[in-house]
Amino acid sequence: MKRSIPELQHSEQALVMVTAYDYPGGRHAQAAGVDLILVGDSLGNVVLGYDSTAPVTLGDMIHHARAVRRGAPDTFMVVDLPFGTYHTGTQDAMRAAVKVIQETGADAVKMEGATTEILQVVDNLTRNGIPVMGHVGLMPQTATAQGGLRVQGKDDDTARRTLEGAVALEAAGAFAVVLEAIPARLAKLISDRLHVPTIGIGAGVNCDGQVLVTHDLLGVYEGEDKKIARRYAEIGKLSREAIEQYAADVRARAFPTRENSFVMKDDVLDKLY
Ligand code: KIV
Ligand code: NA
Q1: Cis peptide preceding 82, ω within 30 of 0
Q2: N or C: which end of the chain has fewer CB within 10 A?
Q3: What is the domain extent for residue 144?
């Protein structure tokens, strides 16, 4: 059954969140019993083949989130607001969030950052009944401005900004905050400081929950090893080998066999000759 926000916030166990981008992804995540599904804009990287999340549109997010929802009707689903859809004022952000909620059945939206403008958006949305998950540390949508995809919060300046950002997001009404790619001790400090749950990725074991990009945990891309992830399967290798085997069988005329074929009566066939 779908967990409510208070249930998620008071969970004794570590919260489990994975990303999903389509119907089978939603089905697998729900069948596995995860607490939350994130339709992340990592969609751009792992499904659409872009080299950043910046090109992902609101339409892309809605298209994919609808499919996830069909596969996971009973799991708490968070949908990322993509780059540019919440940066042009609280009205635009509200419109984008309402569209996501209405068209996908999302339970909450997520957005990156804790600038004054973003905090205003979080405050506005949550006051109007739209649950918001925050996201600080490494923020892929604006990674270029952060100096690339790198760990944040190692130095005094970015550590303080990350801590203050998380605290401000909670004060603005965020029901949970993702901590991405920050030192484990900073993540622990933030998790101790906040009342709402922290959900870490590349943020050590002392967060209230963990999130991973499913394609990383499934090993969808052969030869790609990320420090922050653990591969629980080699789906990419299995997929390639299965297609290779299929190709070999077709070329050897070993597929299809009689079992895969339909029969007809001899007399019906005879009439055609
Ligand atoms: O888009 C995404 O998958 C995310 C998670 C990595 C937190 O934002
Ligand atoms: Na994201």
Answers
A1: no
A2: C
A3: 5-235
Q: Indicate the residue type of 251.
A: R
What are the tens digits of pLDDT across the range 26-66?
Answer: 999 999 999 999 999 999 999 999 999 999 999 999 999 99
Q: What is the ipTM of this complex?
A: 0.99
Query: Distances from the Cα of 25 to the Cαs of 67, 121, 174, in angstroms?
Result: 9, 30, 26
Same domain, 90 and 141: yes
Residue identifier of the C-alpha nearest atom 8 of ligand 1: 40
242 and 231 within one domain: no
Asked whether residue 126 falls in the same domain as residue 173, the answer is: yes
What is the model's pTM? 0.96
Q: 213 CA to middle of ligand 1, Å?
A: 7
Same-domain status, 20 and 63? yes
Please check whether residues 152 and 247 belong to one and the same domain.
no
201 lines ligand 1 (CB under 6 A): yes
Q: Of 2, 48, 1, whose CA–CA distance to 21 is shortest?
A: 48
- Ligand 1 touching residue 60 (CB < 6 A): no
Task: Supply the CATH number for residue 106's domain.
Answer: 3.20.20.60
Terminal Cα distance for the chain, rounded: 61
Helical spans, DSSP H, in 56-155 = 58-71, 90-104, 116-127
How many domains in the chain? 2
